[in-house]
């Protein structure tokens, strides 16, 4: 099955104010975006790890492109002392926004 596109997610320690502004500048350089909403974590989280993370996402039609940008983004985050908790690349094969054959999404 062919991918419609690839989606990269990077989860980092929560950042606010000036650090969030710095993160947004880094993201813009690598064509990533900071999610506006906080991602709620598991109930088993400890005080050491916040229940709200800062979540970064990027998209590409090419795996090689998104992998390259992700690696460079991770290096830049590390260099700028951001704490990365997770990164992943997903292959999207179905998306209701693109050529929706099932037509299961209805207008609200």
The ordered string of helix (H) and strand (E) elements is: EHEEEHE
Strand fraction: 25-35%
Ends distance? 31 Å
Task: Count up the helices.
Answer: 2
Which class of secondary structure composition applies to the elements? alpha+beta
Largest sheet: 5 strands, antiparallel
Please compute the radius of gyration using only Cα atoms: 16 Å
Mean pLDDT: 88
Low-confidence stretches: none
Total DSSP E strands: 5
Tell me the overall shape.
globular
Helical percentage: 25-40%
How would you concisely characterize the structure shown here?
By secondary structure, the chain is α+β, with helices and mostly antiparallel strands. The protein contains 2 helices and 5 strands, in the order βαβββαβ. Helix content is 28%, strand content 28%.
Index terms:
single chain, 108 residues, alpha+beta, 2 helices, 5 strands, 28% helix
How would you summarize the topology of this molecule?
Layout: E1 5-12, H1 17-29, E2 33-34, E3 39-40, E4 52-60, H2 63-79, E5 84-92
Antiparallel strand pairs: 1-4, 1-5, 2-4, 3-4
Describe the structure.
The chain has 108 residues and is α+β, with helices and mostly antiparallel strands. 28% of the residues lie in helices and 28% in strands. The protein contains two helices and five strands. Strands 1, 2, 3, 4 and 5 form a five-stranded antiparallel β-sheet that branches. It starts with a strand and ends in a 16-residue tail after the last strand. The mean pLDDT is 88.
């Amino acid at each position: 099955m062919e991918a419609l596109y690839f989606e990269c997610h990077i989860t980092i320690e929560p950042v606010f104010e000036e650090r969030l502004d710095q993160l947004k500048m880094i993201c813009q350089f690598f064509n990533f975006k900071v999610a506006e909403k906080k991602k709620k974590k598991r109930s088993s989280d400890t005080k050491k790890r916040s229940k709200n993370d800062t979540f970064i996402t990027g998209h590409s039609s090419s795996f090689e492109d998104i992998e390259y940008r992700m690696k460079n983004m991770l290096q830049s985050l590390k260099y700028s002392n951001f704490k990365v908790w997770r990164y992943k690349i997903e292959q999207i094969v179905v998306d209701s926004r693109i050529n929706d054959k099932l037509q299961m999404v209805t207008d609200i």
